[in-house]
Specification:
Layout (H helix, E strand, L loop, with lengths): L5 E5 L13 H6 L4 H8 L1 H15 L2 H9 L4 E6 L5 H4 L8 H14 L2 E6 L23 H15 L5 E5 L9 E2 L2 E2 L5 H19 L4 E5 L19 E7 L11 H19 L5 E6 L12 H19 L4 E4 L13 H4 L5 H4 L1
Helix pairs in contact: 2-3, 4-6, 7-8, 9-10
């Protein structure tokens, strides 16, 4: 493994419930997100559900298994109500105790931790002041900066704390032909990124990496926050959902998809900042239903192996995700990466 390179997994669906990771509570109620769960269950039962889930879904044994598999890092999505002060007066349950425990487990094993503030600039439930949307992520930019400040201050100088990603999913407003897409204006996103950087640096110093999601806009950050003026800044590319339109029913199509991901990373890196892959999976686009399960597994293995070769040139990558309750073959690292030797991951 290259010195300092992070090779890890996401802990998606732990601190916030995700129906594709643990569909059981959603299937029982017919809900599609946590906001609906609260209405369906009531606050007390929802609190009991969340607390039971957090205590059982990810435990110290998971961190031991992650380290044993050869990973050296975890990426943890942190909801805006992480601290008691933010959760107070809302139906949500704070999770700073779980985060503290996770960092202790990581430090005992020599694992690095990246915290990701789960706000989504430009998306319907994202980072802005407009009404509506799921209350889980509907907060203002100022509130996001306040939470980043508290997170950075809380974990500054801890050995396992590697960095903070200032948002999760981002949708920039871009021009396509004569029209602008929906999303957050580019200048607003860049301003938020600069302010987030200064906020984190003011309390945690220069060492933690500050990570900026590129929002599927690899050409949008050229000459932005140059390394001469800003220290330890990375872009993050999410490549876990492959684009449709490529026939992946055979190895040639799978290779085209790998090449497309590699070209994306080269475009993003041409802006001057290091680029990590915050999310990737073994999932392929829709394949002809006539293909056997064995055939699909073989193609997913080719895809995974090819991605590893490409992403191992990055300063960090994180498979999406460590575990799912149904052991989803393309998304659960315990399944998708089970047959890969440690040397291939490194």
């Amino acid at each position: 493994m290259a010195h300092g390179a992070l090779r890890g997994v996401n802990l998606t669906g732990w601190l916030t419930l995700e129906p594709w990771v643990t569909p059981e509570p959603f299937a029982r109620t017919g809900c599609v997100d946590e906001a609906q769960l609260i209405k369906a269950l009531g606050v007390e039962d929802y609190h009991n559900l969340v607390k039971a889930h957090r205590s059982s879904f990810i435990q110290s044994s998971d961190f031991v298994s992650i380290a044993a598999r050869g990973f050296n890092a975890v990426r943890i999505s942190v909801p805006w109500y992480v601290f008691d002060e933010e959760a107070a007066g809302t139906p949500y349950v704070s999770c700073i105790t779980e985060l503290d425990r996770a960092l202790e487990w990581a430090e005992e094993l020599g694992l690095h931790v990246i915290f990701v503030l789960a706000v989504n600039p430009g998306l319907p439930d994202g980072l802005n002041d407009q009404p509506g949307g799921a209350p889980r992520t509907r907060i203002s930019g100022e509130k996001s900066l306040s939470i980043l400040h508290k997170l950075a201050l809380h974990y500054a100088h801890r050995s396992g704390f590697y960095g903070i990603e200032v948002a999760d999913e981002v949708k920039p407003r871009v021009r396509k032909g004569f029209k602008l897409t929906d999303g957050i204006p580019g200048h607003s996103l860049r301003n938020y990124y600069r302010r987030a950087y200064e906020t984190i640096r003011s309390v945690a110093g220069e060492e933690p990496v500050v990570i900026l999601p590129d929002g599927g806009w690899p050409q949008g950050f050229r000459r932005f926050m140059s390394q001469q003026a800003y220290q330890n800044v990375w872009l993050d590319a999410h490549l876990d959902k492959p684009c449709e339109g490529i026939d992946c029913s055979g190895p040639r199509g799978v290779q085209q998809l790998i090449d497309k991901n590699e070209a994306y990373l080269k475009t993003s890196a041409s802006g001057g900042l290091p680029v990590m892959v915050g999310k990737w999976s073994a999932s392929l686009p829709s394949i002809d239903g006539a293909m056997t399960a064995e055939g699909r597994i073989a193609l997913e293995r080719i895809y995974t192996s090819g991605q590893l070769k490409v992403y191992n040139t990055c300063p960090a990558w994180f498979f999406q995700t460590w575990k799912t309750s149904a052991f989803l073959a393309a998304w659960d690292a315990r399944v998708a990466l089970a047959t890969f030797e440690r040397g291939m991951l490194e």
